[in-house]
Amino acid sequence: MNVLIVLLMVLGIAVPAQARKVSVGIPVVDVSQSALYVARDRGYYQKEGLEVDLVLMRGGVANQALITGNVDFTTVPTAALQAGLQGAPVKVLLSSFHKPMFWLYSRPAIRTPKDLAGKKVAVSSLGAAGDSALREWLRKNGMDENREVAILAIGTTATRLASLSSGVVDAAMMTFPHNITAAEQGFRELVSFIASDIIQLQGAIVTRDALLQSDPSLAEKFLRATIRGLIYYSTNRSSAVPILARNAKSSEELAGKVYDLVKPALTPDGILSDDLQRRVMAPLLDRLGRKDAAIGRFFDFAIARKINAELKTEGWKP
What we know:
The protein is α/β, with parallel strands linked by helices. Helices cover 45% and strands 16% of the residues.
């Protein structure tokens, strides 16, 4: 054993334990990951003895990495729930936001959902969160998304905006900051999904059943820090905006606009009611032609409830 460590122990001085490395697959670097940014920047993960690495990867890749054990957690709930319906042993443990943070922008001549008939609409990839939200919205407006509209997988939000600007597509699903740019360029905001009645998870924490069984303490430590980050983000705008700007590599002015736009979509304690859980699953079940599924198979908020109760008992304030 290192002589210095032995000496510190003899003198009764605490020796910091080596941090546990935790990998988290994230699909984007944007506001949906805010709880994680805050938890990392404010030292909440460090306090739990964790060294958290946010690994940028596409949603489907992140989900597969989770299932195979190459990452410990992901923030790609839509892909995870779709895989769960196919039998994958994964669960959603927490959700930072419960509304789709997307905006559908179109050419000015398109004014209603029906005007999209025969038109091309860009999404990031088929089956992704934006694609799912778009299809649900089209169905709610009486349209057949498979026959009446051509939904194209175009890639990043920047590429989708470029495709809209060049006329390759007639409308495109936008996220930050390109929704703001699209408005500035004169495109029409056909729908704000945050203001819609569609329920969809963003910035949710997902893990595999095996990790919950083999290392529940890791899940609890990671969730405790993340929940602290979520509470801090939701209650401290002036301090949260600079953290968001720094991590998303944007100006504080833009980060402030983003913060205000998404505030209504926040899930204050990260826990979904049974009704919201069912509403999350309903469109995914519809796409598979299934009528019902036990929500307990896909969600587990027991740890989040325990942590929230403990923080309230302690009187913890960020």
